[in-house]
Known about the structure:
The protein is α+β, with helices and mostly antiparallel strands and 165 residues long.
Amino acid sequence: MPNGMTRREREVTDINEIIKILDTAKVLHLGLVDGDEPYVVPMNYGYTMENGKLTIYLHGAKRGRKIDVIRANPKVFFEAECNIIPFEGDIACRYGIAYESIMGKGLAVIVEDVEEKKKALSLLMKTQTGKDFEFEEKMTAFVSIIRIDVSEYTAKYRPMPQKKL
Length: 165
Ligand SMILES: Cc1cc2nc3c(=O)[nH]c(=O)nc-3n(C[C@H](O)[C@H](O)[C@H](O)COP(=O)(O)OP(=O)(O)OC[C@H]3O[C@@H](n4cnc5c(N)ncnc54)[C@H](O)[C@@H]3O)c2cc1C
């Protein structure tokens, strides 16, 4: 994981806490580079975390801008957040928002292997619903699966401020 975060005391390094963020967030924002323009797409996801190695799976239509962009440039960045709670302050600059978030970068791969597509759809449903689903080969034909091989990620937690007694 890179070390460059401001407010380092808010960095989350416990892998179990990072997994909780991934299980809770449900939607990630996928950052792409379309020629010389940034492009961001919100998407649902599934993931695996094996010995600290994060792999993300996305599904979507077989055609469209994000697929075209990924084919041209597979470098991606992502961000997801959860447990967002706005809070008030006595003056404007003490208002804020509690949150937990994860972001990172990696390479996107369009998955063609049917067995991996089935696995990816099951992982996606598990992350999104907490339930186990199995997929038949014919169900994989209608969707594209994007795997993100994540090379770096960081997570951050901003708690609610302590109330003064
Ligand atoms: C909470 C949430 C979860 C989603 N989950 C998924 C998912 O798991 N899989 C999935 O494939 N899609 C998901 N979507 C839809 C996704 O954001 C895109 O709309 C869709 O993937 C098409 O992307 P594309 O690049 O192929 O766009 P195209 O259909 O090729 O569209 C091109 C243009 O349409 C506009 N456009 C596209 N998407 C959006 C958008 N969401 N909002 C506003 N304008 C848009 C942009 O101007 C873009 O340049 C989700 C959206 C939301 C809000």
